[in-house]
Amino acid sequence: MTPNYEELPMLRKPSLYLASPLFNEMELTYNANLKKELSPFFDVFLPQDDGLLLRDIIKGGIQQNVAARMVFDADVQAMAEADLVLAVLHGAHIDEGVAFELGYCFAKNKRCIALQEDIRQALPTGNNPMISQSCEKIFQDKKSLLDWVKINFQNKSSLHYNH
Questions:
Q1: Partners of 43 in the beta sheet?
Q2: Residue 163: which H helix or E strand, with range?
Q3: Which of 25-34, 89-98, 139-148 has the lowest mean pLDDT?
Q4: Which architecture does CATH list for 15-147?
């Protein structure tokens, strides 16, 4: 009997949603480099590369309210498909989009981690508890994050049925 290969499980890398500010050249470059470093371990969804950007859609002639909904829907879909979210928490105040993405993913029972290399924080006690308690781990530097990823995800794929 010939196996039906469409029904066999396919190995795949876990998917990671990279939630990060993307509003200036420095942030865009940082995000792209981080995605490159994570890509051997994950299928990384980075909104600036893989999603829709509001400014580009509006430049294309779409009304702002329609464009905003398009961006929102695309990112929510990507978060729904992600196995893990990595929130970049740089700055004294965490980017509001990142805060939403982290909260949304936590509420959807996604595995949430964060990277916070920036020592500036608005609260003298550290991050707002709604941020810190949403995260399984908050890494203080990229090296610690990548070391953890290598230990937990190198040569490990999850099973996924190819439909």
A1: 15
A2: none
A3: 89-98
A4: 3-Layer(aba) Sandwich (3.40)
